[in-house]
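quick one, 598 residues, struct below
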Amino acid sequence: MDTTPSAELFALLKRTEVFGHLKSHELDALLQEMAWFWLPGGAPLYLAGEASDALYLLRSGSLGLFGVPSIGGTAHMLGVIPAGATLGELGLICGDARSHSVRALRDSELLRLSRASFERLVARHPLAMLGAARVAVERLLHGARAGATSPPRTFAILPFDAGVDARGFTEELQRQLRAWGDCAVIDAHQGRDRDTAWFAAREAGSRFVLYVDDGDPSWRRLCRRQADALLLLVDAAHTAAAWPYPVREDVDTASAWRGTSGDYTHHRPRHLVLRHPRGKFIYGAAHAWRRELGDGELQHHHWRHDADVARVARLLSGHSTGLVLSGGGARGFAQIGVIQAMRESGITVDTVVGTSIGAIIGAGIAYEWDDAKLREACRRALVDGKPLADWTLPLVALTRGARTTMLLREAFGEIDIEDLPIRFACVSADLTQGATVVHREGLLWRWLRASSAVPGILPPLFHGGHVYVDGAVINNLPTDVLTEELHGRVIAVDIGADDTLRAGVDEAASPPLPVVWAERKRRDWRPGAFSILVRAGMVNSETGSTRRRELADLALRPDMHSIGMFDWQQFDRAIEIGYRCMREALRGPASSAQEKPQ
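---
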């Protein structure tokens, strides 16, 4: 480095796992080889696929770790790399290409150790550098790389106008976040005219920092510059409108960096918080505001009371609970028992993702139906309503699908997915593109209908030129939908049809109808059309389900072999099986998965 190493830099290196064991003279040599540089907010440090040519130490600011973007999609942030962390050490040693992209969430200072500098240090201090390499490899073997990231720590609270109670929201959010560490609130009165060292000290002394916008443009810009994530507060009762000032700003230095966009807030999480009037929920508000703001990556939250702010706090801090529900026909009723046991144990669900019947039950959970309402609505729609009773000439499917559609609309009305108080997504299979689709917006009943359209039994949902069928065809346990989100724990319930489909006869052609009629009570002789179609539709997803179960902190597999896929009358028994399974899991060793270490 060009300047004399300071005590602060020595202390910073001493706190790292990789270099903390070095002696003073070795640290001095290391610092002499490291180059200081400034990375403007929004600029990439490196991109996935690039050669690993350096190790970095984040001195101040914060960096975002991003996955590889999907085709036609954007890269999701996997976590925040906090000040004091090292990154790139394994690539420096092994020479592998970068597996993720890293971008500055805000203006950051870093120290860089190039490969050439590292090799010079190895030549001069072989034992010390060997120790650093050993620590890096041990971190890889023990999966510690994932622990190098954390959820966002600093937040800018930006109200749409003075009519939104930003102060009240901030105070309640601060109270909720204190469950996981000290949380400081900084407003214009405290922070105006302070230097960067003052803000760095406040952030270093608190687990979370909330910067509150009071309407002053210069202070607002500083709030955005200091924040890892932005919280946009609006009144749900007001007509959606364009944001009164740019939420995103262009920075010339960032736009010049490798030809990337100058939008330095683009890669920071953005959360829309809709304040609903007391005792009233404004349906359609979330969809209208999201459309007006035109931000596909914008997450939204409903704010009606303190419990909603508590949920926001859990989601922001990485302490939330995600629930994943699979498909499996009548066996899905076990999931009603699982959620009942979870509620009795005080487990609050913050995000629900489901496929097929898991999507339908999950939507009821996200709608905040209590146990009685969930039982009643599912019994009415899926048992008493006989959704598969409208048989038809099988040109497209064995049933018309009209009855299923009617029952779903009756149960959920004409609300959007965005209107559900708890975050929700359902999965369907798009046969037009041959890919899984995750539905987070749009008419709820429509996408539940798509997610449950078992090929051959229910006709596909045709929408926008695409053909959608049951998500279980490709992904029957969509835990992977939550892997790019920062949840404290993920609980998965897998009731898929993994039991063997057997036949008691050897035949290459079905016998005449009189013979079939005479043998109608011998169900073990030949499986029915419904069972064959369901099994054929789900068999390809079962290998993936094995892998996806490993993504959950707690994966439940209730013993459903005694209940068939279409044993709708086993409603109460299936619920009891699910309830017992969850209670046993919470009493056993698996209950330790309730809290994932941060």
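The longest helix spans residues 571-587.
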